[in-house]
Specification:
alpha+beta, five-stranded mixed β-sheet, 5 helices
Length: 150
């Protein structure tokens, strides 16, 4: 079995599409993730955007895990933070170190960009995600999340 962790670049549109499909399967929300897929030009511009970070874990040619994250440049100091927006691993590949390998790759990317922290949100009912993130840190905050309509 061959596996690799890949930081997607501008030309990795097909991998980004596979990553999106994997998120839909892992989150059991395939309809939402496949309902209105963006065109190639949009995906290319997203992959070329320095603030967007996409990482895929590929096992035997199949995307089985991944991360979508965003670098947020700060105004109060010359530094940035990385927001880990989505992390998923197909059920068949969970508890095999895939998520940890993905986060380690994100840490490496964040370090090279000069980010001082990676932050992530986990929903209260998602005990698995909470336990995983707690295993990576000794700091947890209780916060509220609000969606404000535009």
């Amino acid at each position: 079995m061959s596996s690799s962790v890949v930081h997607l670049g501008r030309d990795d549109v097909a991998l980004l599409r596979q990553l999106n499909q994997m998120f839909g399967m892992a989150f059991e929300d395939a309809e939402n993730y496949a309902k209105d897929p963006p065109d190639e030009s949009y995906l290319r511009s997203l992959l070329a955007d320095a603030t967007f970070i996409a990482i895929a874990y590929i096992c035997d040619g199949v995307v089985v895990g991944g991360i979508a994250a965003y670098e947020l440049r700060k105004f109060e100091q010359r530094r940035s933070e990385v927001y880990l927006y989505d992390l998923a691993v197909l059920e068949s590949h969970r508890r095999q170190g895939v998520a940890t390998a993905l986060v380690r790759k994100l840490q490496e990317i964040a370090r090279t960009r000069g980010a001082h922290v990676i932050f992530v949100q986990a929903d209260k009912p998602d005990d698995g995600a909470i336990a995983f993130y707690l295993s990576l840190t000794d700091h947890q905050e209780d916060v509220f999340h609000f969606d404000i309509k535009v």
